[in-house]
Amino acid sequence: MNSMQCYSPNTLDEYQKIYSGIAEKNILVFSGGTDLMIGRHELSQDAIIIDISGIAELKGVEKKENKIFIGSCTTLNELLYSHKIQNDIPILIKAIKTMASEQIRNRATIGGNIGNASPAGDTITPLVVLEASIQIYSPESNEVKTIPLEALFSGPCASTLQNGEIITKIIIPLFEDKDIFCYFRKIGQRNAMTITKASLSAIAKYSDSKIEWIKLAPGSVSPVVKRMSKTEEFLQGKKLTPAVINESKEIIGKEISPITDIRSTKAFRVLITKNLLADCLSELINRH
Amino acid sequence: MKQNNEVRVDAASKIAGIEKYTRDLPIKNALIAGTVRSSKAHARIESISYDKNYDWSKVTILSAKEVKNNYVAIIKNDMPYLADKEVNYFGEPILLLAAENEKILLEAKKHIMIEYKELAAATTLKVSIDRNRAEDVFEEILLENGEGNKTFSTAYEIIEDIFETGFQEHVYLEPQAVVAIPDGNTIHIKGSMQCPYYVQNAMNELFKGTEIKVDVTQIMTGGAFGGKEDFPSLICGHVALLARKTGRPVILSYNREEDIRFTTKRHPSKIHAKAVVNSDGKILALDMDILLNSGAYATLSPVVLARAVLTSFGCYKIPNVRIHGRAIKTNISPCGAFRGFGGPQSLFAIEMLIEKVAQTLKIPVWEIKKANMLSLGDTLPTGQPIDYSYGLPKCVEKILESSEYEKKYKEFKKYNENESDQTNILKGIGISLAVHGCGFTGVGENRIKAIAEMELLPDGKVLVKTANTEMGQGVDTAYKIIVSEKLHLPFDDIIIEEKNTSKVPNSGPTVASRSTMIVGKLLLDNCERILDVLSLKDLEFSLQDFKEAAQQYFKTHDTLIVQEEYKHPDFISFDEKTYKGYGYPVYSWSANVAEVEIDLTSYQVEVKKFYTANDVGKAINKQQSEGQIQGGIIQGIGYAVYEALCIKDGEVQNRGFRDYIIPTIQDIPEMYVDIVEDTYFNGPYGAKALGELPFVGAAPAVASAVSFAIGKTATKIPLTPEVIATLIENSNYEY
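^ inputs. structure came back:
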């Protein structure tokens, strides 16, 4: 009864062939499919779907020079248990620990989480503050290009990927300075298996009781994940007095643009984003 | 009776995954059914049209025009199987479709156009109350005792507030599923359900005046919690009608989304409660105005309201009361039965009212509760004396000890004063006393006249015939224990008859925590009868003796079938006009302590520990009783903290578990369960009700702990972070 067409290529080359072989380019490409599972009832019975999570060359983690390269089809648990990067990108590891459940993390991939382009995507905010870039492969031109991660998002759950383009790699520059503060906290509706109501990723350099620089990316409070440049600028060079913290809370509260949806209200999201920033800054003070 | 810790008889097949549920039934040649629903909360149906270019030959369509007795027989018979001229809620069934497969159904639905003329809709309780129409009141109850008004003038203080509870979805693991199989003039109905005889009764009404006969079989049911008490009558009618029309078996099974959006929920409540107290916190009078949001049709609302009224004074001795209850119609999906059945709503109100009294008088809440708690021999506002099976004082003793409540009460106060600023965490400890009236309200049991039957088989085994269904609560195992204990038979020699209305008598529905207490007692009485016939009564005997006696009996007889019919003891009477008398033949009691932490960054409430002691008369199966209690607590924590149904213009927005939030294993506290056994003279081995009790006390204990933490009375549940933020920050963060 079901005429849905499903493909699961094992190599990029196979993907390219499958893609080229489909005339009607109404194709859903995914990697892992843990989010798709939930919405499966809404899928058209005649949908064409391609799961790229089995492509071996898109798996694995590599550290080269001062960068980390993560294959887009690496699962969240592979990252969580990868000893290579535990100390290099603690903020990403922190975020992954809060995601879904053991079973789902075994299947969900980092590329899938990014490609889904949800403002609530929990790997996205850490990668944005880390100023990661991504490699994109086009089956039409058979070429690879590299773009800043932030340029991928065009709206809530909408990306600039087109014509079968897929994310192949995530590239994270590392800091030479090892004394970098990082913060990730997510507020959901319960302790596990929860979608973010609001979250905050931050990395900062703190010295002489002052913020040298700070990078902030909140989750689930704007159409696309983005940096809080006004708040960052305000905090730069400042001593974290209670007055400064309070003022920074007000600034971030105005810089975000959350909505009311089934998970929370706009007013509450503003409130807890401000709280998250205060929590982040007080952790920063306490650590130094 | 010895201490029983039996593994459930249905455990192995469920763990192995070989148990057969309704969807697993091998039904040949079946059609799949689907439902075309209203997309308006309240409207006149102007026209229904079918796309002329679509091939309708593969689809059977059934409309209200073809349903002669178009009402679901529950209490008021006001709900149609299919809406005819008017729809009263978003999602109300208008048409039924049947086809070979789901794909055809989905496609066919796209080719049906329904035009509506929208009518004024009351999609909230407030709108319905404000428009103040008599026809929106499904039921009204007034219970008065003493001299309510006079005490107000002599009072030290009148303390009042408005308390609200939310919807709750049952979240049974197995969504609704039923099938109808035509067989000549008979239609066999099978499905996931609690009450085969409720369905039987509804089908008898539906096919009244026709040649159609129906029998109903319950298939192993994957959870129900009340959600499969009244609702299956509607969908069994749907499949029966389609089966009659097509002459083929018809399967109707909801997916999770359809189930969450369009099946019954717990009634939300809004309760205005006032207490008249003297200066040491003694409650002189209680005035309560209870409103239940019933949804579009009455379903079981009148009896849900009755229990809400009779639970409203909680576990306290209050000389003067005026309890006014109303069940109100709104244009949303009808609410129905749910574990606790009105009790949780009014118990929340009375427990939180006392919290408010404590906070107003600046007296620790436990002091107030202790000062007002019932003592053995006291009388309820209904006039019913509490003079037997009153284990609450023992429950209280147990939890005060196990939780170290009084010590922690002081410690947590200090913590909140001195350490919260640094940790950003508020701690709370709360206490609740809970009561659950056992079995049907009033003399409902005398109306039902439950019959249970047992048959001695020639090989010395017995066949147990009741209509009480296994839905995960362990009733089959409980019955085997009850019978085994009396007849000395091993479990394998006790056969539970299929719950098929042509095979078992009507022992009443599997609701109201009555199966063990009422029907279990009938089984025990049946055992006595068998022993009497075998001349073993009052004798010591072995299994061998029993088997030999049975052998002897069958030398001269063909069958031995014994039957017992239930009737309350004569002194149990109830006046349904004044609500005076025995609201219930006996009560189960619980005392509960919850510890919570509130994170001041996220405003999340986390229940860290939960202590409970439950007086259930007698735990027939101890480990199963503990399981029931733990499950009730978790469901109660969901009710208190997590579970929020989001309704917009009458339409349920939640689609599944990603947006209807229930606690996971990461969210549930350490639980310490005590069982108290203050036996009931008329229950099997002293057992009384257990199933609903642990749920009822959980939410008030959590809300009491939250009130402690924030220093304000938590007046509504669920206490989502948005509600907590609103309470703490004095600004609105809610929807």
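The two ends of chain B are 53 Å apart (CA to CA). The first helix of chain B runs from residue 11 to 15.
thumbs up if we can close this ticket
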